[in-house]
Every structure is written in C-alpha cells, then in structure tokens.
C-alpha cells in the first residue's frame, strides 16, 4: 500500500514539475498599444475577462479600470476553464481552495493606450486546524477526539484568505489574449 502511494506521488510530481504554458515576463506589464485607443482596448479587455469567467465589479470599476470579483481557481478536472495556467497551478487548485482577483487598468498614452494587469492569488485557510505535533498527525482514528456529533452542534469555522502574491502566469495570459483580440 505504501509503495503504491509513493509511486503515485512520484508520477504526479514528475508530470507536474515545470509545465506552465506561458513564460513569465514574456510581455511587458504595463503593455503599450501604439495605435489602439483606450476605449477599444477596454472593450477587448472586458471581453477577455468575461471569457475567463471573471465577473466585473461594476461599482468598483470605472472608466479605464476593470476590477473583478474573486474567482475560485479551476481544478485539474475542470479542463474547459482557462483561469488556471499550467499543471502545477491546476494541481494546487485541486488540493487547496485558491481564488484570484484581477484588475486591468487602461490609460491613454500618446495616440495609443497602455494596459496594466494585476492578478492577486489567495488560498483559503482554516486557522488552528492543523496538528501541533507529528504524533497528532497520525492520530486520526482515536475515538476520544472524533466522537460523532450532529451537524448543528459543530462550531462554525472562521476561514481566512492567505495572500499568495501575484499570479504572473495569468497576468501574461490576459495580456496575450488582449493582444490577439486586437489584431
């Protein structure tokens, strides 16, 4: 049993290592479009965000700035969704609850426009639920701590979102989609 589990983990690690589809830093962020006005770029950016299933926050959004609601990341079996880039992030979204929030800022620059994309990634975390020692990790079948309870007797868990920084791969993907849709 243990040997089969280690073989599965080894295969998963080998297939997930370094398989992102978009190279980080491929496009400049902010990206300048010399011959395209800001209104056209904003329309295309709005369409790209909607294709990625982001909902635009209309009160937070204004002319030249598109802010999105948080979107839970696609897991490995949601192959039709395009908001998670690469196998590593897909695996990560399958193990943890990951959400992303995006902001696209469009400003006029000369006769063209400039686009800045920022995507922030966060992980859902239940504080205080992890074991304190290695011994507690393997103590899952002890009946003292795991007495059966009715669902309405459980205390609600206060979840918090832990900031994981910016999602450079999704930022690059959004910039690439805007560029392709403008051609």
Write the layout of secondary structure elements.
Elements: H1 2-16, E1 31-33, H2 38-51, E2 65-67, E3 71-72, H3 86-95, E4 98-109, E5 112-125, H4 134-137, E6 160-166, H5 168-182
Antiparallel strand pairs: 1-5, 2-4, 3-4, 4-5, 5-6
Helix pairs in contact: 2-5
What are the salient characteristics of this protein?
alpha+beta; Alpha-D-Glucose-1,6-Bisphosphate, Chain A, domain 4; 5 helices; 183 residues; elongated
Describe this structure in words.
The longest helix has 15 residues, at 2-16. By secondary structure, the chain is α+β, with helices and mostly antiparallel strands. The radius of gyration is 21 Å and the shape is elongated. Strand 4 (98-109) and strand 5 form a beta hairpin. Helices cover 32% and strands 22% of the residues. Strands 1, 2, 3, 4, 5 and 6 form a 6-stranded antiparallel sheet that branches.
CATH topology of the domain at 29-127 and 157-183: Alpha-D-Glucose-1,6-Bisphosphate, Chain A, domain 4
Q: Level of helix content?
A: 25-40%
How many strands appear in the DSSP assignment?
6
Beta-strand proportion: 15-25%
| Subunit organisation of the chains | single chain
Indicate the structural class.
Answer: alpha+beta
Radius of gyration: 21 Å
Outline: elongated
| Average pLDDT taken over every residue | 78
Distance between the termini: 54 Å
Weakly predicted, low-confidence segments: 16-24
Largest sheet report: 6 strands, antiparallel
- Classified by CATH, the class of the domain at 29-127 and 157-183 is Alpha Beta
Name given to the CATH architecture of the domain at 29-127 and 157-183: 2-Layer Sandwich
- Count every helix, treating DSSP H or I runs of 4 or more residues as helices: 5
The H-and-E topology, N to C, reads as HEHEEHEEHEH
């Amino acid at each position: 049993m243990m040997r089969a589990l280690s073989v599965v983990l080894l295969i998963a690690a080998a297939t997930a290592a370094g398989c992102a589809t978009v190279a980080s830093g491929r496009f400049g962020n902010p990206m300048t479009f010399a011959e395209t006005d800001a209104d056209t770029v904003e329309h295309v950016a709005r369409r790209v965000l909607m294709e990625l299933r982001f909902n635009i926050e209309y009160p937070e959004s204004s002319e030249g700035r598109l802010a999105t609601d948080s979107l839970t990341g696609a897991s490995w079996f949601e192959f039709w969704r395009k908001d998670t880039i690469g196998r590593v992030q897909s695996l990560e979204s399958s193990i943890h609850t990951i959400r992303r929030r995006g902001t696209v800022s469009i400003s006029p620059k000369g006769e063209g426009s400039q686009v800045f994309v920022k995507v922030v990634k966060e992980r859902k975390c239940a504080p205080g639920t992890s074991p304190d020692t290695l011994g507690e990790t393997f103590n899952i079948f002890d009946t003292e701590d795991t007495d059966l309870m009715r669902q309405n007797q459980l205390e609600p868990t206060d979840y918090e979102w832990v900031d994981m920084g910016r999602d450079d791969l999704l930022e690059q993907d959004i910039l690439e989609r805007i560029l392709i849709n403008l051609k």
